[in-house]
Amino acid sequence: MLLLYGGLFFALLIRIFYIQATGVVDGQKLEAKAAALYGKEAVLTAERGKILDRNGNVIAEDTLSYRLIAVVNPQATKNSKEPRHVVDPAETAKVLAKHIPMEETEIYKILTKKLSDGRQPYQVEFGVAGRSISHDKMEAIKKEKLSGITFASDTKRYYPNGPFASHLIGFAQKENQDDGTFQTIGKMGLESIYNKELSGKNGTLKYESDIFGYLLPNSEKMVEPAENGDDIYLTLDKTIQNFLEESMSKVYEQYNPESIVAVVANPKTGEILAMSQRPTFDPDTRVGLENGWLNEVIENVIEPGSTLKTFTLATAIETGNWHPNATFQSGSYTILDRTIRDHNYVGWGKISYLEGFQRSANTSMAYLLQMIGDETFIDYLQKFGFGDKTGIDLPGEATGTLLATYPINRVTTSFGQGSTVTPIQLIQAMTAIANDGKMMQPYVINKIVDANGKTVKQTEPTMKGEPISAETAKQVRELLASTITSEVGTAKRFALEGYTVGGKTGTAQIARPGGGYFSGKNNYLYSFLGLAPVEDPQLIVYVAVKKPQLAVTEGGSEPVAAIFNTVVQNSLKYLNINPENVAQVEKTSMGDYIGHNVESAQVELTNQGLTPIVIGEGGTIIDQYPDNNLAITKGSLVFLKTDGVITLPSFDKWSLRNVLVYKSMSGLPIETVGEGYVESQSVSPNTIVVDSSPIVVKLKTPEEMYTEPLEETSAEGEILPQD
Hints:
Largest sheet: 7 strands, mixed
GO molecular function, one term: serine-type D-Ala-D-Ala carboxypeptidase activity
Mean pLDDT: 87
CATH superfamily of the largest domain: DD-peptidase/beta-lactamase superfamily
Strand content: 15-25%
Domain PASTA: 584-644
Catalytic activity: Preferential cleavage: (Ac)2-L-Lys-D-Ala-|-D-Ala. Also transpeptidation of peptidyl-alanyl moieties that are N-acyl substituents of D-alanine
Distance between the termini: 117 Å
Helix content: 25-40%
Family: Belongs to the transpeptidase family.
Enzyme class: hydrolase
């Protein structure tokens, strides 16, 4: 017996030494088996970058949400008096089906499923249906007091402004990946185009745990941190975008058109300040997305109608073929076997070319084309960018088509029929008129900033060419203004209180799918391409309303003007552009005060008619706004930054832009409520700021502060003839 048991013990000892030395049992490495059983790897999800407007206002960001988890293993209740696992899967499935978008039978299957080896999992989740749960929904489920049901913090893509440039911004949503994890993926618009930059790079957490997922004692955690996504700053201005969204919604509700498209741009730089369309959708819920995915500003072509006459006129002036006082016979113009007619069919007799442009006579454009020459005309349209992509930093841009094969095509193109363009092409071409001949490429991405605050991309304005001279551009602006101020002008309805406006109306026929054009005043594309103020344009705006349902007494320009006038009037006031009827104030050049004593700078600036605002305790100036050599209007605020504690100024009547400049330079936790101009502030002026409590500044919109009804005017409607 001693020898037998001694032999067995000796054999066992040899086996133990062998296993320790080799780590192999039956050809399998124990270390690998243990790692597979106890080694865990968790994904550290990168935070998706934000999309913000030009002033840092959030348009899209990740926000806190919750993930639904069901603990199904009875081991969770082992040492507890209260059940900590799902005791009744059938009842739990029935209750949860009332709160999440999943059938009761599917929930039950998840609650009762087994692992591949037959064991019961510790906990289960419910895929997309159990993610992105709001706080209210979580509270509602908790009130059901279901055993084993718990929640984990999660993130959800959030769009705080609702339908806001939705076809430009797009949307992102969580999707199940091949490795079983969930990741937010951009599905449309900028969220999709810049998905890689916004997504960042996930990290990993490696550790050892028991079968229930608890960290084993003395095990090491290996962390590869996540790299958060980049933030994308757009050229959009939230305030101007809101003006546009609100006015478009009102017109869409009142006139029930088939669609509306509108764009607001800065002609000096090509920056898109606002862009929207109707119908639109809510990126949070995707309600309305079934109406279309295309961003119609860049991906859809239209016949521009009489807005294109702006560029026919510019070509005539530039080539020396504009004679405003010369006359022509209006009404009809015949080329070969084709006759075109003016929108009133019979014309106005023999009139001057100036009156012909103001009345939007098609025949005036035909006669101008005859003087310009067909090839020269098409060449200038190409110089204005028609027939080619603008190169805007968005995919899917359409090119449009300049019809020039037959003489009749070139004639109809001269007044905007037959050839097709995109709204963004009209905006780009109009920058040459507004910007003294310099045509600027439109763009929507201002800059991209990584998670460390480093700017990885900065877009600079790009000049696409100079199709016309500065003198021609100035003359065109004056003629565009006359369509509004002239008694015979078709754009009188677009006059603004206090500001000069120039622009061209358009009434384009809409082609039928089987050939020909729709008829009747409710079946046109009504539009306006305008700029303001005429003397020094700060804004270009294009608005197009397709098939509005007009009352018997209404003209097609009414819904278009309702959008254009509201947006331009409010935006110019928001931008602190002085109305024309306000006494003209002198301008001065901003000096370089960095490194100077703030007290002496204050005296100098005050003597120049400026209002210095000191940010800090005093002493040496370390930063200033505006920058050196910039021309500024007397009476403007000038910000001087110094070291030391900050005494809060009075924000009374400050514009939102000035408040944002002060916030940026001071670093104070200022929260703005509303739009427009400051009405009140939560912390009194002359208070020394000593903590990080938020300072709430309330503003009123220009519409609230300047409520003056505009005089109703009538406008001639345009009807383009069929070929």
